[in-house]
Amino acid sequence: PEGYEEVEVWDVGVVCVTTYRNEEGEEIYFEYSAPSGALTIDNEHSDYSEIEINGCKAHLFASNTEGKPSFLLWMNKEETAFFMLEGAAPPEDLIRMAESISVEQ
User: Fold this and answer.
1) Residue 38: its pLDDT value, please?
2) Is residue 72 within 8 Å of residue 84, measured between CB atoms?
3) d(CA 1, CA 11)
4) Do residues 24 and 32 lie in contact, with contact meaning Cβ atoms separated by under 8 Å?
5) What mean pLDDT do residues 99-103 have?
6) Which of 71, 85, 88, 79 is nearest to 35 (CA)?
7) DSSP code of 91?
8) In 3-state terms, what secondary structure has residue 71?
C-alpha cells in the first residue's frame, strides 16, 4: 500500500516471502507457495470474517488488539497457489493489496 516499500525478498523456490516496510518501521509480509500442510494463526487477538478476493474465498483475521497483526489468507481459483498477507496495516489495506495480485500460470 501507499507508504510502504519492498525491503526484502526471501525465495526458496517452494515459498516466497516479500517484506514491505513503512517509515514508522511497520511491516507487511506477503507469502505465496503451493498449498501444503497446516497453518496456525493466532485468532485470540482477531475478528474472523470470510470475504472474497478476485472471485476466491478468503479468510480475514482482523486484529482487535493493538500491536497484534491482521492476517488475510486465500488461494487462487485452481487451488494451486496459497497466499497470505500479515501485518499491522488496516485490514482494508491488506484487502486492496490482495486484490491487486494477479496469478500467472
Assistant:
1) 73
2) yes
3) 21
4) no
5) 81
6) 79
7) H
8) strand
